[in-house]
Amino acid sequence: MREQRPFAEDLGFLLSRASGVIAKSASEALSPLGLRVRSYSVLAFVAEEPEGVTQRRLAALVGLDPSQIVALVDDLEDRDLVTRRPDPADRRNKRITATGGGHRLRDEARRRIDEAQAAHFDRLPPELLHELRKTLHGIAFPDNPA
Amino acid sequence: MREQRPFAEDLGFLLSRASGVIAKSASEALSPLGLRVRSYSVLAFVAEEPEGVTQRRLAALVGLDPSQIVALVDDLEDRDLVTRRPDPADRRNKRITATGGGHRLRDEARRRIDEAQAAHFDRLPPELLHELRKTLHGIAFPDNPA
DNA sequence: TATTGTTATACTCTATAACTATA
DNA sequence: TATAGTTATAGAGTATAACAATA
Predict the structure, then answer these.
(1) CB contact under 8 A, B139 and A18
(2) What whole-number distance in Å separates Cα of residue A96 and Cα of residue A98?
(3) CA A116 centroid distance within chain
(4) Where are the domains of chain B?
């Protein structure tokens, strides 16, 4: 009879708990800005694409169903953080781009996120953080070994 | 102006995506057994405590609010996987213990979970998995450096 | 008064299917 | 016919407050 690892050491369980801790702290950091983790993720990806992104691509980037992107973009658009315009070349596509205010809010959000995460990651050596990033990326995107 | 790391490399984002991938695969592995990730977590912790666990402690172990444990234990109890009995010494406490069937289902669930996780973790060297476990534990339980 | 378990409620997140407009 | 975006809906997960029984 082999010795069994306690469930508290199960990698899936630990991943879930650690992810929950970070998400909660991110959520609290973003709350004063009127952003949630998901709307911030959308804004962050949009702000990195000067040419704009389609909602389909946004869905793939964030890891949500395209139908869920609609309300997130609606909210950001209502607050003039992004614009949503049909692509003249293919009018089925909407190109989402960040406004000046969107970029500024994204910057402020990132500062807060970084500060919140520092409390969790600060004591870990940089090489370990680098390796953690690589490992998590491999798990999250098994087909895309960057 | 410093070079900024793309959001796709944000540790919180990667943690969330990786955790989601593993949770989805665990969910699919457990589904044929009529278990979800949360009910399996409860069952797994209960099965490790021959003396039984209070629901309060269970909540702390799994990382849920005590009010959420009620329905989970209700379901497991209805299926005769656990028993729920008042502690004679302090009748406010309920001692939750796993039945024979509970232990058997837990074993089968663990086999399936291990198999599902192997697909994600197999190619990672054991030392890295050990370090990952340690790192995630440190993030999830900052006060309890085991 | 404090603690355990419980109920109730509301909100967020997730998953899915069906519709529209364009191609 | 295929694709992008949209709407609607139901289910699961999460957070909070209040209550009964017991200490």
Answers:
(1) yes
(2) 7
(3) 15
(4) 30-140
Stretch (H or E) spanning B104: helix B100-121
Q: How confident is the model at residue B38 (pLDDT cuts 50, 70, 90)?
A: very high
What's the predicted TM-score (pTM) here? Answer: 0.95
Nearest to B33 by CA among B76, B82, B83, B77: B76
- Where does B30-140 sit in CATH, by number? 1.10.10.10
Q: Considering only CB atoms, which chain B residues are within 8 Å of A63?
A: 17, 20
* Distance of C1' in C7 from CA in B117, Å: 37
Question: Does A8 contact chain B (CB < 8 Å)?
Answer: yes
**Residue A5 to residues A2, A99, B110: CA-CA distances in angstroms?**
9, 51, 11
**DSSP alpha helices (H): ranges in chain A?**
11-30, 37-47, 55-62, 66-78, 100-121, 126-140
Measured CA to CA, the distance from residue B66 to residue B12 in angstroms comes to 26
- Burial letters for A105-143: b for 16+ Cβ neighbours within 10 Å, e otherwise? bbeebbebbeebbeebbeeeeeeeeebbbebbbbbbbee
What are residue A81's phi and psi, to 5 degrees?
-95, -25
Decide if A124 touches B, using CB distance below 8 A.
Answer: yes
Amino acid identity, position B8: A
Helix (H, G, I), strand (E, B) or coil at B85: strand
Q: Which CATH number fits domain A29-140: 3.40.50.720, 1.10.3290.10, 3.40.50.300, 1.10.10.10?
A: 1.10.10.10
Residue B84's DSSP bridge partners are B96
Relative orientation angle of helices B11-30 and B37-47, to the nearest 10 degrees = 80
Mean pLDDT by 10 residues, chain A (146 residues): 83 98 97 97 98 98 98 98 97 98 98 96 96 97 77
